[in-house]
Structures are given as C-alpha cells and as structure tokens.
Design brief:
404 residues; mainly alpha; 25 helices
Length: 404
C-alpha cells in the first residue's frame, strides 16, 4: 500500500515501520512527513520514532523531515528533541522555552538549529527576533529555510530587510522561496514591494510564490501586478494570481471593494477563460471563507462569456449555501449567464428540500427560463408547500409572460 493511502487510513504503525526499516531514503523522508500530518502528541511512539530519526538517520533529508514533523506535532515534541540533544529542561513558560531555543540557534548540530527555528516560529516571541535575523546567515540552507519560515510566522517588520537580502542573493532556491513566503506572510507595504518586482523574475517558481504571497495584502496595491500575472506563460503562476486576486478582494477595506471588484471584472474578462474560471469555481466549491466564496460567485457570472458546465454547476450548488450573500451572488451570476444549460441545471434545484434554495432557483428561472421553466413554475404556484416559493413562482411567471 502506498504511503499516501497509509496516511489517509491513519495507519501510523505502518508508517513507523517504513520510517524505521525502509532502505529508501525517499520512503523514510516521506514517512516522517506524513507522521507529522497524521500523528499526535498523544502517541509517544510517534514522537520517539521521529526524535530517533532526527538524531540518527544517515540522510540529512530524512533528519530534516523528522525535525519538521516534530514541529507539526507541536512545541512539546520539539522541546523533547531539544532535551535529548542538550539536556536542557524547557518545560515551563513560553518565554523560558524561547530563551532555550534562541540559544540553540548557535548549536553545532544543524538539526538542532532547525528544530530551534521551528519552535521559535511556533512560540512567536518577538524578543528572539535579533537571534533569528542573525540565523538568516546560517551556513546550512536547511536552517535558513526554517528561519525564514519562523520570521514569517512571527511577522515582525524588523525581519523584512534581512529577508529581502535572502530573497535577492541567497544561493539556494529553497531559501529564496522561503524568504518570499515569509515576506508575503508579513504583508506590510515594505514586505510586499520586493514580491511585486519578483513577478518579473526569470524563475517560474519564484513568480508563483510571489503571486501566491501577494494575496495577503490588506490594500489594493498589488492589484496591478497580479492582474499582469494573468498573462504569465506558466499556468501555475496564472492560477496563483487568480487565487490571490480573490484573496485581495476579500482583504481590502469595504469602502474600496466595489471599485476593486469592477476593476477585477475588466481585467479577468480580458484574460482567457481557462485561466480564470476554474480557479474561481474551485474557490466557490471549496473555500471556507464567506468573503472569498461571495466574490468568486459574483465574478463567475461576469468574468467569462461561456464558462464550462462545471463552473455553472458550482454556481447552482451555491444556491444552497448557508451564507445568504453567497447564494444571492450565485443567483445574480446565473441570471447574467443565462442560456439553456443554466436553465437545465437550475431546474433540478426546484426539487430541493430547502425552500430557500427553491426560492433562489425560481428567481433565476424567472430571468433565464423558457418553456420548461414555465411549466415547472406554473405547477409550483399550486403545489409548493412554501408560501414564499409560490409567490416567487407567480412573479417569475409574470416576467416570462405566463404559460404559452
């Protein structure tokens, strides 16, 4: 069975066997990563195995994955590793643990420095920022990657200039990518400025990281650079830009949102449908943030002339949304799209158990319906058990000119 399936089935025993016994360093590394995802602090055997791998595996990649997995399990797991390596007792207040981990950034063993950086990012104590800034010059790129991540989690503006230096000059691509992610997480105007410039980089992966990170901004400033990235030759960059544009629209102050939304419609309409529509539909289907779903629902009806059926189906499903604004925007977008396909898919919602969903479907059919819609709506005026749905059906029939 594949490691992925073992993780999906929460089979930590089998993953522990792979970590301990596999001859393949890639299998051991991946097993360590997955144990960080599916294991817990309540499983001492998982913590023990990861600590052992972090200290003893022959491969640096496996040791690094084990350190990161301990970080995923939580600060106590990293403190256990620190205790094994140094004999230090970090059981107590966060400030005491931060002090111990700060000292560990100077340790001779790189895995200990990696663990210290991971832990400091979790603790979030700004008092260790000067030590983290110094550690950005660590000789080991694996340590620098994790120090960048810690700076991003703490989000102290003092780390922006040294992170910018890593982004511009580090010889390891992993470190440059981690610095870009950290600047995006900090998201001050100063932190975002180098990311905007990075969208013109020759490095496709850096452009993608920058496009993803710029969505963290709380102003409309990155709108122009991100819309420019919709024309990037690489699909991954274009997709990241679409996701960030929706995130950006969700983050900007309310008084700016209407103007930004209209500007986005113009820019997204100019991009090819394949670039724009599927990411918007994915956000509508999968996002757990109401503002993101609302904006995706609104834009889907206005950013593409002929979206694929999967995108129309996502809008139809959104008629059932618990968030009324998302459902309302989905209704207006379906009315904007119109057509036989929209009518066919919306007609199915008339059989829904939720009267709110049926009422929204009736509204859409009143805007786009044909003969099939008239027949169903006429029946609803007498048979639906919701007074509101019956009233809306009368109104919709009136718009459609009644039964022919």
């Amino acid at each position: 069975m594949s490691l992925y399936l073992l993780a999906r089935e929460n089979d930590t025993d089998a993953l522990l066997d792979r970590l301990a016994d596999s001859d393949s360093r890639n299998v051991r590394r991946r097993a360590a990563e997955l144990l960080g995802d599916v294991g817990s602090l309540d499983q001492p055997e998982v913590v023990d195995a990861l600590v052992h791998a972090a200290l003893n595996d022959d491969e640096a990649g496996v040791r690094g994955a084990a350190v990161d997995a301990l970080g995923e399990l939580g600060q106590p797991a990293l403190e256990r590793l620190l205790g094994e390596l140094t004999g230090a007792d970090t059981d107590g207040a966060d400030w005491a643990a931060a002090r111990q981990f700060g000292k560990a950034l100077d340790a001779s063993l790189p895995e200990l420095r990696m663990a210290a950086a991971n832990a400091l990012g979790r603790i979030g104590d700004t008092g260790v920022v000067p030590r983290l800034v110094d550690a950005l010059d660590d000789d080991d790129p694996r340590v620098r990657v994790r120090v960048c991540a810690a700076c991003g989690r703490i989000a102290d503006p003092r780390t922006v200039p040294p992170l910018e230096e890593r982004l511009a000059a580090d010889g390891d691509a992993r470190v440059r990518h981690a610095a870009a992610d950290a600047l995006g997480a900090i998201a001050t105007p100063r932190a975002l400025e180098p990311l905007e410039d990075l969208l013109a980089s020759d490095d496709e992966a850096l452009r993608r990281v920058a496009a993803s990170a710029l969505g963290n901004a709380n102003s409309a400033r990155p709108l122009g650079p991100l819309t420019g990235a919709l024309g990037d030759p690489y699909a991954a960059v274009r997709r990241a830009a679409v996701f960030s544009l929706i995130e950006l629209l969700s983050n900007v102050p309310t008084e700016q949102s209407d103007a930004v939304r209209q500007e986005l419609v113009a820019e997204l309409s100019a991009a090819d449908d394949e670039t724009v529509v599927e990411p918007l539909a994915e956000i509508l289907r999968e996002s757990v943030q109401s503002r993101q779903r609302r904006n995706a629902a609104w834009l889907l009806g206005r950013a593409a002339d002929d979206p694929p059926e999967s995108a129309v189906a996502a809008l139809v499903d959104a008629l059932r949304a618990d968030d009324g604004m998302t459902a309302q925007f989905a209704s207006t977008s379906l009315a904007e799209l119109g057509g036989d396909r929209t009518e066919r898919l919306v007609l199915d919602v008339l059989d829904d158990d939720d009267p709110d969903a049926r009422a929204r479907a009736v509204y859409v059919l009143g805007e786009v319906g044909g003969d099939r819609a008239r027949e169903r709506l006429d029946a609803l005026t007498e048979t639906d058990d919701s007074k509101r749905v019956r009233q809306r059906a009368f109104s919709a029939l009136s718009k459609l000119g009644g039964m022919q």
